[in-house]
Input
Amino acid sequence: MHKEVNSVGLTQTKYFTIEDKIVLESGVEFGPIQVAYETYGTLNDNKDNAILLLHALTGDAHAAGYHNEEDKKPGWWDDMVGPGKAFDTDKYFVISSNMLGGCSGTTGPCSINPQTGKPYGLDFPVITIEDAVKVQKKLVEFLGVKKLIVAGGSMGGMQALEWSIANADMVDAVIIIASTSRLTAQGIAFNAVGRNAILSDPNFNNGDYYDKEKQPEKGLAIARMVGHITYLCEESMHNKFGRRFQYSDKPNFDFNIDFQVESYLAHQGQVFVDRFDANSYLYITKAVDYFDLAQKHGSLKEAFSKTNARFLVMSFTSDWLFPTSQSKEIVQALIKAGRDVSFCEIESPCGHDAFLLEFETQTKIVKSFLAKGENNG
Output
């Protein structure tokens, strides 16, 4: 069924366990940690042709290809990963892993706590982007990689920035798409509303709901609805829905779904509930909120002075969650730190979600950036 010429084809999620405890940024020692990951392409003899893809807030290890012949939907960045694509698997060994705290195979709050034999729930330690990168570093070392390129959009871009500073000796190039060096107060506010929707769900039960008949589905669905609004933009919402009614051309005069946009958000919320864990949403959004390179290193210039990589930074005109101004702030700090940086703002009506949708333009830019490294190499 899945025989596309430039597809990675059928793929399999694998698992790696970090047996030793790692020291989290909070000071807590935590372990063991299982990491879910997928790889595409082949690591070369020099172990230096690897690209680590870092997913956004609710992503997973399945970045490309299909898990079986019946799969209708490929991995989340399938348009960008494969033979001849932006992340060319004929040239590169591409790695994608599920983030620490996630719910798609990597240890998170829904994983079994070996001390109790029950899911961690809120006993799971609070994590940061730095902690996620520590775990990814262990995976990359396990795979035998000596040098690599890191790439990610949104929260993935935050991880890529942290990678470039924390593991400067390993990272040759960094691709940051629709991302930021720290969330704005408005960004934190949207995350806070989502978390409060979950925490106030009567079925949340202080995070201990895994063996219960009722789950905090309403709270998680509302959190997703709020988040999803930030991924779109006014133009894309207007083009998709306008003020059109869902079922007729007249109002219902009640509080049920009236407008198409209401129906769309309700659907997005329900689909999300089927694939994501409410506790993971709490932990990962908090990790995003805590991320602040300037605060941690004194300034952005100081932070980027610790990197050795060259950078590609991309933003999108209609992204108001991580606007172009935040990408430019990163670029200006990189220039001040004397780093090699390329920047491109892409015209798009797709809002923040553009990094998952505008693959044709991104492919040209990424290929050009990677080719420069290949030629210099």
In short: The chain has a mean pLDDT of 96. The longest strand covers residues 33-40.
